[in-house]
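Internal tracking record. Fields below are filled automatically when a chain is submitted to the structure queue. Please do not edit lines marked as system-generated. If the sequence contains nonstandard residues, flag them in the REMARKS field before resubmitting.
Queue: standard
Priority: normal
Entity type: single polypeptide chain
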Amino acid sequence: MKKISIYCFILISLGFIGCTSKTHEKTIEDFDIREMSLQVDTLYSRMTQAERVAQLYGIRPKEIMEDGKLSLEKCKEKIPDGIGHICQYACALDMEPNELRDFVRDLQNYLIHETPSGIPAIFHEEAITGLAAKGATVYPQQLGIACTWNPELATVKTEQTAEVMRSVGATLALSPMVDLIRTAHWPRIEESYGEDGYLSAAMGVAFVEGLQKKGLKNGVAACTKHFLGYGGGSSLSWKEIYEEVLLPHEAMIRQAGCKVLMTSYGRFRSEQAVSSDTLLNKILRGYLGFDGVVVSDYGAVGYASQKGNPDILKQRAVEALTAGNDIELPSNNCYKYLPELIGDSLVNEKYFEIAVKRALMLKARLGLLSTDRKLYATGNLDLDCPEYRKTSYDLACQSIVLLKNNNVLPLSGKYRKIALVGPNANTYWCMLGDYTYQSMQAFWWGGKIDPDSPKIVSVYDAFKHKANGRFTVDYERGCDWSAKNETSIIREGDPRTERLNMMLMESSDSTNWQAAINVASESDVIIAALGENPTLCGEARQRKGICLPGDQEQFLKELIATGKPVVLVMFGGRPQVIDEVEAGCSAILQAWYPGEEGGNAVVDILLGNVNPSGKLCVSYPKTEDKELYCYNNGEFQERIAYPFGFGLSYTSFEYSDIKVPSTAQTTDDLIEVSCKVKNTGKCAGTEVVQLYLSPTSSEFLKPIQLKGFARVNLNPGESKIISFKVSLQQMAYYANNGWTIAGGQYTFKIGASSFDIRLESSCQLTGENVRMERRNTLFSISEIE
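SYSTEM-GENERATED OUTPUT FOLLOWS
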């Protein structure tokens, strides 16, 4: 019996699954779209100009609140004609779930019953680690999610996120972020799925599929961001942009049905992204055929002119709306001038009408304009039920990457006395990435955090719970996270950065360096929990370097000098350079920001209750060099400490019996590649089998490219056959405004990482080159037998 893992989710051209039912579903969808379009046209025709404009921007909840409660008087003053969006409403409010839902209920009732056209608002929120709301489950940060290489479980996560969001009235997630990041110095790397376009696309599609699984009318709309190249890709060649940087957005839009896209603060070539005709018309609505809504990043329409004069703001409004940026978030800093600009013939009214109808169409798709609309759940709400926590735990376990192990892990019975030291040993902060509720509250709003809503498990908490008399754990913090002035605020992007002061993470534990060294000296093994917290990585937070922050490296050197085996557990939102201390560590775990169950996941891996299976979604640098890097450029190992796709296990795996056809035609649909993988160790484990393509005789493709992967669970001595069906469209290259499948020799490589290639075999493509406008199949299919 075969288990099939489908990473393409929707195969447009190859027709592998469900053709008849898909056609039927498409017919129903087309009928619904026509009906909704008629409804939108009718609604638009009876709206006043003020009502129409109000649909093109948002408002923050605190602007219509007084003494912590919704104020109907302020609603009548601020939003008398309705409103398009209520922006980041959950992370900005210190409200329990029922209270948050009731806030939504009361505001929607006002909009429906006391504004002229009675149009509900879209309540949107951040959701990369689950809904950013008090009491909601905190899943691992996206960089860690990508290290699971498990789209199926990532889909479960966003299915659960959609349930939670709908229950408290949210219908749009400003997530996921799928920028490709080629340097760990970029402060928002933690929000990404890493450096590879294929893996990022697979995880992005999984995110959308889960969030929108019940359909937009009952699910939550996803938003792909940032368009395009915000993480450093806008200056690359057109070839690399189309083949890699655009791929995650393309997959989410064309294959997963993503209907919302966010532009960035940055520039694309010579244009501001938010008003780029090249991006929004030629690429997005032209090449990709996007028919959804474009929203600006917060403050991006008036970017660099928040303090500017009205003439500049008007110009920004004209440029953005004309280019196709439909909605200005989070407020009407620039779009409030649209009636005047239309009246003075400075904006063609057709662009305005298109934008308003797109905004209304999204509301129609979300069911907000239906008579049977469900705007929130009733009854008592639980946003962190056991099922959600279990998913968070499973993702955390699978996201943690074992980078080194000199037979010290898993901790055996001989380690009776454990020293647990470091600033991340007894804190919840190292579990939480940026855009969690907790980080948003602390950094953007200066709020206080309750680590029990939801319960966030520290490493020390987990060790104490799991000891059961088998060992003792002596804890000392030892050193602080960082030195003063190590991190600064980047005064750009979100306008709020202009008035922010750097938040400080605090600990109630004493910081006694020598006491920690003494405890370590008297132990059997040392667990050093080091790395970052949300002060040190995230939007608008810039570190001076990417080594272990503050005095942590020196602290680690003194721990190593005790002569006791040291297990380094690194937390944070990026790879951190550890070249000077790596040799002295007996084992190294990269835990990222693992979410509310992170402590349990880390300790279960240390104790051997869970076998690590995470694989790196980024190349791990050896130095603090700021030059961009990516494995598919054929990076030299001298620059990289641990390669893309790398991750160790407590067992071992043997690869054999690769099968690749010796020849194929350029007009064929697919090539099947297979191999056998065997667990040759003594415990059960999971291997992530990675398929790479190298163009032996082609100068048009990168030296090595990921083209498929599969997670394989194996008991000791067990073997399974993994087959990959690779579309020839995946082997095409972009040039001259189109794609070409070229004849030549191609080598398929199967390995445990991009450097650790275990098997390879070549296929000769023969026949005439095949030219196409765009690719319709972007992912391979894996089968495990």
